[in-house]
Amino acid sequence: MLPVAAIYGANASGKSAVIKAFEFLVNAVKFSHTQWQPDQRIPVDPFAGDGPAAPSEFAVDFLLAGIRHQYGFAANSDAILREWLYVYPKGKRQLWFSRVEGSPISFGAKMPGENKMIEGLTRKNSLFLSAAAQNNHEALLHVQKWFSEALSFGTSHLTYFAGRAAYGANAAQFCQDEPGKAVIVRLLSHADLGIAGLSIEEAPWPEFGIRLFELLLTEAPSATFPETNKTIRSDSCIMSDTERSHLKRSKNQAVRWPI
Q1: pTM for this structure?
Q2: What percent of the chain has pLDDT over 70?
Q3: Alpha-carbon distance 142 to 52, whole Å?
């Protein structure tokens, strides 16, 4: 396997959408059973023009202990419509489970565990794989752990702009260290952008920029800062002192993120 893979394309061609779709798949496996509310709509974004009832399908092939696994699901904003897991020991496809809305889940003979009991706990808007892992299903726990432990994303956990600001602050801090700065300069040189060096300068934000930034934080869905796991929630415009410490400002200073 290649140690690095890249997605190339024109502006607004869907590169980020591919990563966001993958991130949604992972978060659904990790959190749909424990954090999605029973009456909550599934946060999928169908293609423009398809309408909210149009299904979105997510699937991934991966190796676990050297064995190919194929997992996926299809959902609209109301329910999980399909979900499946196939395993390929010795290269031959083996059904572990297959789910279709409105029908009992089909389980393969090679997947032991409390399948029927967990099926009864699985809501229409949560994944069976997520429910199984939360109930210590012996055969599926290691599959869910692959999603939880083997993958991480550098995309925004807030809004696009807030996330860019947080990671930009981390990059600035990294560049203030001479070895780190040398690494960044080398990478820029290999990218052939015509950049021979870099420097870090602090500049104050204009008042309208600060107000916009605070608005993004209060209006965005509940989000977690990747560096601290602290959460700012959109159901209140009042931040605790701990949460407000993430956004420091004074009259003539730049907005600073903790790094």
Answers
A1: 0.61
A2: 74
A3: 33
What are 63's two structure tokens? Answer: 């190796």
Look at strands 67-75 and 80-88 and give their pairing: antiparallel
Helix or strand (DSSP H, E) at 113: none
- Residue 102: Cβ within 10 Å count: 7
Angle, CA 133 vertex, CA 128 and CA 139 arms, to 5°: 95
pLDDT, tens digit (0-9, with 9 covering 90-100), for 136-187: 998 899 999 999 887 777 654 444 555 566 666 677 777 777 888 888 888 8
C-alpha to C-alpha distance for 201 and 117, rounded to whole angstroms: 59
Helix (H, G, I), strand (E, B) or coil at 234: coil
Token reading at 167: 């990671």
Rounded CA separation 74/59 (Å): 9
